[in-house]
Structure prediction request, 804 residues.
Amino acid sequence: MLIFKRTLRVIIFIICFVLIFSGVSNILERKSLEGAWNMTLKVGGFYNEPVDSLDVMFFGSSHMYCSIDPRMLEEQTGLKSYVFATQQQPLWISYHYLKEALKTQSPETVVLEVHMVVQEEDYADEGTLHSAVNPIKLSRNKVEMVYAAVPHGERRNYILDIFKYHDRWEELTRDDYTLEHFEALDPLRGFVQLETVTVIESRDELEAVVDVSEPLDKSMEYLEKFVELSREEGFELILIKAPSNATVDEKKLYNAVEAFALDEGITFEDFNMHFDQLGLDLAMDFYDRRHLNVNGVAKFVPYFGAFLMEEMSE
Amino acid sequence: MLFNSFSFLLFFPIVTLIYFLVPHKIRYLWLLGASYFFYMSWNPKYALLIATSTVITYLSGLLIDSTKSRFKRKLWVGLSFASNLAILFFFKYFDFAVGNLGRVMASMGIEFMQPTFDVILPVGISFYTFQALSYTMDVYRREIFVEKNIAKYALFVSFFPQLVAGPIERSKNLLVQIEARHYFDYDRVKSGLLIMLWGLFLKLVIADRVAILVNQVYGDYAQYAGLQLVIATLLFGIQIYCDFGSYSYIAIGSAQVMGFTLMENFKQPYFARSITEFWQRWHISLSTWFRDYLYIPLGGNRKGKFRKYINIMIVFIVSGLWHGASWNFVIWGALHGIFQVIGLITSPFKAKVADRLGVDRINFSYQLGQGIITFILVNFAWIFFRAPNFTAARGIIDRILLEWNPWIFSDGSLYELGLSRANLTVAMIGIFIMIGTSIAKRKGFEIRATLARQGLLFRWSVYFALIFTIIIFGIYGPGYSESQFLYFQF
Prediction:
């Protein structure tokens, strides 16, 4: 009887500990709720979208989230979508983002922006990793994500990010305590709205670039996993390159993706090559050299929407 | 692995769990394996060194016991001491000795090619060497049975809770317990865990926090004036007590969980009213080791007053050297020796004066005064312990005496010493809590026992408060490099 009582007490103690721990962890975690890049809301808010409500989902890096406005796309095509991406997100994280999304959504089409084949290192920097990993809910998928993306010895700081953020006790704000973001929706649905206009002098000529540079083995490994997953789950996978005034070196890497897509029978479209058809203006449509601003998006989305509708009707 | 590391957080529960599941007869083998694993997590090669010291002292026990010849027994003691101290010398003092020899030669105009022994100091070597040697001596003095089982003896030398930074145990205490059976006791385990938690609090919340300020100020002392250096020095006194004390608490707590009782290593040392008393309360395991194996063999106080003073000086200079291969530590040790000798010499004089003046030496205010003076002397000596070298120490003392800047308390520069206002506040609160518990213990108040008698809600609130204070306010994580316990280089 005594052993039973004591064991019970220990178990209840542990449960209380876990509850307090996760509460404290939520308060201390760094949140990004303000500004154009409020990833805590964009990524965290995804969980609050109605289940099975999305037709298309967009994955990738900043090149993805600055190029597609889901509201505009829906107006134009009737397709409901969400941009589930973070800055500089390596492909292996995008893969797990997809797995995460598939828990609550069953999109017909999945679009992956492949810019991150330019990734040169097996492990990205801490800032990139924390931005991508923090807003994802703790689950087996998140642990797998961390194992793929974070080197040994640092994984604990991503699985239990209180170890990274506990020093924030000194700088807690009202937002940290109210935890409203746990129930909020991102009105922009993952889209990062960039207003600034930067005049771009010129762009590289990419027409004649036929060479192929090999991306990281790790990137290609995960591209294959994307394809595998699309076959298992029955969604259509489309690989794209958003207009980003790519350099010749980058184009060589995208060519590798093109070859890969060809092999696998998957659609790949590099919209850098559609610069003229899109009517893009280097002086008006870019936030910086690589990212479309709202002007550019207004041109890209209709064009892309038509492309998407065609792909989906095949 | 450090006690304040994730690895230990995994290592300890697993080792303890299996320890209680495994049959009594092989528990010591499991602990031996775990202890060597623990040690090798620093550097696998150094396990050979500790194994060597273990084998030498183990054999010395057998050899001493095998003969009745006084000469032969002394011979084995001598060989054991000589070989182990030689190992210690080579790994710890060789470069220091050669460096000094080189300077002496240079001053005489002789060229000297300095050979270097470029090896990292094996962790805990000063601790386990002393612990192993104490066994040799104890066997010689017939104060302990001879351990025939080399695995059990090896566990005595390498027992992981106290291997790396003490308490330095005696065979009469630890070896005896290795022979005994230990049972799981819920209350004892809870109490042990609480002790470990307290140690983590002292280390992560107080010691590593004030270390930030101490390192900044002592790292660039010329930038700072009097009071800032005083504050840094006092905080170093806190740091070294909390750091070293925390290690002892975690050692004692983890040993207690498994059923072992290790000796107390600290007894509220800063409440001491004389330097002599300080050393009865600070690093008790080391000072008793020196008392039993150096001071008494030298003659202790049995050869007259003058010889006693010499013996005290020898012991404290050696103790200084034990702490590190540098003149700063020697000076620090010598200072403590001098303070005690002066204390002893002036003691009758002070009694007479007090008598004449009708001073009551038993009341609180007088004893408080003694405590404060002792505290000041100890902290003065810490300057030499902490400063990077003698010149720095002198520079710091000069600035303390000559550059008095009380305005730092009101002009905000107090918060520019490395710790923000919030962090300094947390440190201060932590220190007050520590002082509070020390006063309670000094008064004989048994904190853990009293806590155990309180209601569940209260007890759990205390546990959670302690745990989350450590998790939230502890200095750890990728923002900071896991800081080393100070005493690991000894």
Chain A has 14 helices and five strands. The interface with chain B takes residues 6, 13, 16-17, 20-21, 24, 28, 126, 154, 156-157, 162-164, 166-167, 169-170 of chain A (CB under 8 Å). Residues 14 and 158 of chain A are 22 Å apart (CA to CA). The first strand of chain A starts at residue 56 and ends at 60.
